[in-house]
Every structure is written in structure tokens, then in C-alpha cells.
Amino acid sequence: MLEVILVTALLGFRLLGALGVRRFATWAASAAHAMAVMLVVTASAHFVPPSVTVMPNHADLVRMVPPVVPFADAMVYLTGVLELLGAVGLVLTATRWAAGIGLAALYVLLLPANVYAAVNDVPFNGDEPTPLWLRIPQQVLYVAIAVWVARSADSTVARRVLHLPRSRVARSATVAR
């Protein structure tokens, strides 16, 4: 389901880019926005009460938190907030690099919960549990997209944060002016 949302949003944004909307002029920018759409959908589940049965809800997500993680209820809310912040960060060009790196790290940190849910047959909304052979590639896909979006983002902010010098190409272009 999430992959359908991701691909549909990606193609829709890329179509807008082909029609002249500059914000979606590249595949990477379109992917950043598509991932933001997917994150809003996934993050919303973190706040949905158990009475809602048309989608995964907060209680479903709490059940997938491994017992070794303290405050499972609070962790589900926290990850929902982080996903929403990541979505906003991907849409804003100035924060896209940081959002992409942060989301890649978040997806890696969420992997144990996905493994736990698959191994312990934790269902979402009463549906069949998602098997591990599907969960792992999904997480790898999300990490890969987040890293790709981060790598394609303007790294000016990254250079400033990490105190890195400009690349040799950027310096020579500045000197040539």
C-alpha cells in the first residue's frame, strides 16, 4: 500500500515537473515530495485511536514495539512526530539534506521494530502480518530513497553544519567569475 502511494505521488509530481512546475523538475525533488506524502500517511497512523479500523492505528504500532524498548506508547508518538518533521524537512529545499539523513537514520532505527513485528506475527488492523521477507526490502527502499534525496539536495547547509570547505569545482567556478 505505501509503495503504491510513494510511486503514484512520485509519478504525479514528476508529471507536474514535465508540465513546467520547476519545484518538480528533477526525479530527486519529486521523490522528496513523494516520500513526504508517504510520511504524512504513515505518521497519521501514530495518532489514530484504536476505534478507527480502516487503517493501522496507534495501538497496532504500540504492539510492534519490542518489549526491550521503554515507554512504547510514547515512542510511537515520538516516531510519528519525527516522521511529520521529516516530511516537512523534505519539502523545504533548505532542510532537504538534513531531513534525508535524519529519515535514513530513523528508518534504520525502526528496523528492529519491523523485525519484531514480523517474527511475532503482529498484525495491522486485523490484517495478516507483513512477512519479514517483505518488511526488510521496504525498509531498504526507504533508506535508499532518503539517502538519494539527501545526496541530491543542495549541500550548502551540510557544508556549513559540518564546517566543510566548498568543493574544488565550486571554488574554481567562484574564482572564474
Automatic annotation (TrEMBL):
Keywords: Membrane, Transmembrane, Transmembrane helix
Transmembrane helix found in the keyword field: yes
Parts of the chain that traverse the membrane: 24-48, 68-92, 99-119, 139-158
Protein name: Membrane protein
